[in-house]
Amino acid sequence: MCGLPGAGKTTVARRLAREIPAVRLAPDEWLDDLGIDLFAEEVRDRLETRFWCLGQELLATGVSVILESGFWARSDRDEKRLGARALGVRVELHYLDVPFDELCRRVSARPGPTPDAPSPFTRELMTSYVGHFAVPDEAELALFDPPSQSEPNSVNDA
Questions:
Q1: In sequence order, what are the beta bridge partners of 67?
Q2: Could you give the CA distance from residue 44 to residue 69 in angstroms, rounded to a whole number?
């Protein structure tokens, strides 16, 4: 899954996990369940590294895997694509391209860390995220297998 916060990655990943079927590895859910701040980057990095190790083990046994990390950097997408290809499996990139205002609307509706706290995803934070996100271009997308499952038809379907 590839996209910014609010793009609908979790919604699409849950649907795909049921349809394929596949094991879905979602760092945000694990961090939240463990009571760890979603913005704890060192912990997130360690968790995502562990998920990739587990994902490779599962792929090697024939189990389909969905990595729900956002994959903002081309280098991260290349690493996962090449690693999975080395195991001889199909590799799909589900990039969810959602207009910026819609992303902001969605994330602002998310709850804060406490019931009375606002969402931590401000418009300013989202703007900074856009600056760090490497949008996959057509040449990169062509390196992946075409999605075997249907994609949402609009941002409202995600």
A1: 25
A2: 10
CB 73 within 8 A of CB 99: no
Beta strands (DSSP E) in 70-145 are: none
Name the token pair of 28: 């945000």
pLDDT in tens, 122-145: 999 999 999 999 999 999 999 999
pTM for this structure? Answer: 0.90
Q: Tell me how far apart the alpha carbons of residues 58 and 144 are, in angstroms, rounded to a whole number.
A: 19
Residue 5: name the closest of 122, 85, 113 by CA.
Answer: 122
Phi, psi of 2 (to 5 degrees): -135, 125
H or E element: which one contains 59?
helix 41-60
Q: How many residues does the chain have?
A: 158
- Residues 68-93 as b/e (b if ≥16 CB within 10 A, e otherwise) read bbbbbeeebbeebbeebeeeebebbb
pLDDT digits (tens, 9 = 90+) for 94-108: 999 999 999 999 999
Amino acid at 88: G
CA–CA separation, 91 and 83 (whole Å) = 10
Which H helix or E strand runs over 66? strand 65-67
